[in-house]
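Quick one:
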Amino acid sequence: LLDADACSLAMATASPEAEDPELRMQVAVGSDAALVEMLESAQPGNLVEEVGRTKRSARVEEHASETSAQSLGGESYASYIGVPLLHPRGHLMGVLSVYSRHHRAWEDAELAALESFANSAAIAVRNAELYAGVKRERDTIDRLLASIGEGIIATDASGRVTLWNDAAGQITGI
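Output:
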C-alpha cells in the first residue's frame, strides 16, 4: 500500500488522563533491516512525539536536499508519515509511523489509508482491553464462587442453569 522502508508502532504508557503521555516503541518492521533495528532500539523521535502531543497526523515530505533528511540514532530517513491511534474517548493510545529513505511526497490517499488503518487498530486494541477486563471479572467471580461454602446456582430467564459453584455440585450430587 505505502512505498516505505520501515514502519513502527509506539504505544502510550501513561494513564489515559495524562496530558503528555510517554511513548514507547513496541514494534518496528520493514524491508530496511538497519532502519528497523534502529527504530526498535531507540526512543521515539521528535516527529513521533509531536504526533502524540498534538494527536494529529504529520507528514515530512520531499525535501530540497539530501542534507535535510531526518536522523534517528544515526540512521537517516528522508520522508515520514505518522498518525495517532486515538481511544474512542479521545486520549492517545499510540502512534503509527512510516519511514522512507527516499525523498517523496505522501499522497492524501496514503495518509487517509494510514489514518483508517490506525483507527481500526485503535478499535482492535480497545476491544482487546475490554475483553481482558471481562475475563478478569469472570476469573474474580469464579474464584469468589469457589471460595463460598454454600451452594449457589444461577439461572437465566428461561430457567437454564448459567452458573454454579462446587458446593452446589456437592449438594446436588452432580
